[in-house]
Structure formats: structure tokens, C-alpha cells
């Protein structure tokens, strides 16, 4: 998913989240790609039959007509799309004691793994929301002198990849052997084990190195993990990607879980680091040079002129760009509204040329409008969350839209 696809998908889910129904009238159906449509249809027909027991007449009617609506859509589907499909349908509360039957069909950005039929006063969105969470990859390694486990963290999923045991003897020598000789052999055995760990870890991590491996997290008791890191046993490119060492008690599969828990903060800090970098640069340019631009109109002009190197947009921006035209003459203008402002707003005033009523010709989300221009102009796009100080500042102080310029402009 690109940043923009992600943004669009997030907005789609937000829109669904804001819809509510009465009682349990909103239906969500998750259909994975391997599910037979005929099986889904037969379950829905069952539900339709059972719904006849619902006491409230309006609920009964609404549930049954939602089911009818979903069934009629399934009729034209021979099999589910490649990644599966989710259908949301129900009588949405639109205020003023009114409801309106609405259907939304979503083809998920990732493979759908579950089949689910869900009936509630809100749509069931958790599996789709999970797809929004970051799918970054980290290499995991937990070790002590006895045991080591290498694994991967992809998104929120931890997968153990390789488990190793050592033959390193305990600290106490056996009788008969000289203590010094014993210690020497033990050190050799430890170095051998570290080398073996490194070989297996390299096998797991190296193939991913240029495919978005964000970093390596290492866990274990002190001072073993420090010794391992300091000894630079890992391939030098992997060694460079070590992002932290954490104390964990276990060095098997459960140690991997423990490591991810401990490293949680570090991981989210790393995610924010790129956004932070962009914001820091913007702030520096703002103070020291003329390569910073902000405010919707100014940034749009700079974008259209191809002068923007990095477009910074707040992830919390909720505005739409509306094309307004005259119902009678050629007059046209564009305006930006906050998303909530013109819900159902119909009075747009009159044409300044001929005084006929104005009407909405076209509307787009401002973020999508600006990023579309950015893509044409080869501008880098950075969607900035409000989870950190400068990110919140972009939203509050700069209207959520800013840019780092390629060259000085007077637009
Ligand atoms: Zn007009």
C-alpha cells in the first residue's frame, strides 16, 4: 500500500465507523477468497429466515432488506475477488428519526483470512483496521550462551525462524581438568556458538536486507548480548542495522515476544523518525532560508509550478476541495470546505455574473487532490501524524499543509 492508498483506505474506514444503526441492523460480511459464494448465500438465507422472529417490525424489515440487498449483490459474483471482499449493509441512522439503506463493498488491500457474518448497531471493522497498522519488518534475535532464537517481526506478527542450542559447558569445570584449560575450551565453544548464531541469523536477515528490513533488535541477559554485539559476529550490513539491545529473560520463542514488548517504544520511535526528519527540515528552512512554504493556497501554487521537493500533509486533515459552477452560465470557482461543514449544505449562494444559483460540480478530498498534483510533479509526499510535537504543530499552526521547496519562489 502506498501512503496515499493507505490514506484513502483509512478515510473509507472512518466513514464506515461513523455510521450507526438502530438495534442490530447493520450487517458486515467478510468473505475470504477461498470461500464459496453459494455457501455464503445459503447462510444469509438462513439468517433471513431467523430474522422473521425479530419482534420489532422496523428492525425485522430493515435486517431482511439488508440481507436481500447483500444476496442480490452476491448473485453477480461467481467467486470472491483475489484478496476477498467485505460487504457492509444496513439502515443507517441519518438523524431526524430517519434511516437510509446503504451498501458499501470493499476489496481489502491485503489478503482476507477470515469468514465472518456480523450483525450489530455498528459495522464490524477490526480486521480491516488491522491492515492499516504498519507492516514494517524487523529482525529479532534473542540469545544467551546456551540457546538462541532468530525470528522476524512483520507488522505485529512475530515469526520464529531458527532455534539453536549450544554445547557450551557450564561455568564449573569437571574434576580432573585444569581450570585454566577448561575456561579456554569454554571460550572457544562460546565463540563457535556466537559464529553459528550469526550464520543462521544472516541467513534469515540478509535476504530481507534490501527489501525493507528496518532494523535488528537483540535481546538476552547481560552481558552476553553486549558481548555478541561488540564482537561483530553478524554480517557487517546486518550489524549496522542493530537498533537496540534489550534485557529479556528467555531465549526461546517466548523470548522473541518479550523482546518485541520491550522494544515497543523504540520501534514506534523509529517509525516516527522519518516524519520527524521532514518536519525538522521544514522548521529549519522556515527559520534560515526561503525554502519553506505553508498554507493551502501557497503550497498548491508551488506544487503546480513543480517547485516542491517534499509535500508535508497532516494525517488529521479533513477537508474537501469543491468545484462550484453556475447553473446557467460558464462561471466556475473552487473552494475548500471542512468535511463536516457542507454535509447536506445546499445553499452555495448565487453566481456573481448572472445571479443564478450555484451548484457543486465536483468534489475531492483535499489530500487526494494535492497528492495527485505532487505525483505528477515528482514531489515526495510525507503524511505526518499528530503523534509528536512538530507533527501536531503542522496541523495546528500551519493548517496541516506545508512544503519544502526545491528552489526559492515568490508564488
Ligand atoms: Zn452564472
Q: Structural class given helices, strands, pairing?
A: alpha+beta
Radius of gyration: 29 Å
| Number of self-contained structural domains | 3
Low-confidence stretches: none
The pLDDT mean sits at: 89
List each distinct ligand once.
Answer: zinc ion
Q: What is the β-strand count?
A: 16
Shape: flat
Return the CATH class of the largest domain.
Alpha Beta
For this structure, the CATH topology of the largest domain is 60s Ribosomal Protein L30, Chain: A
The CATH architecture of the largest domain is: 2-Layer Sandwich
Order of helices and strands: HEHHEEEHEEEHEHHEHEHEEEEHEHE
Strand residue percentage: 25-35%
Topology:
Elements: H1 3-17, E1 26-31, H2 37-51, H3 57-74, E2 85-95, E3 98-106, E4 116-120, H4 126-132, E5 137-143, E6 147-154, E7 157-165, H5 179-205, E8 213-220, H6 224-230, H7 236-239, E9 242-247, H8 253-288, E10 292-294, H9 296-304, E11 308-314, E12 319-326, E13 332-338, E14 358-365, H10 366-376, E15 380-384, H11 389-397, E16 401-405
Parallel strand pairs: 5-8, 8-9, 11-15
Antiparallel strand pairs: 1-2, 1-4, 2-3, 5-6, 6-7, 10-16, 11-16, 12-13, 12-14
Helix pairs in contact: 2-3
Bound molecules: zinc ion (ZN).
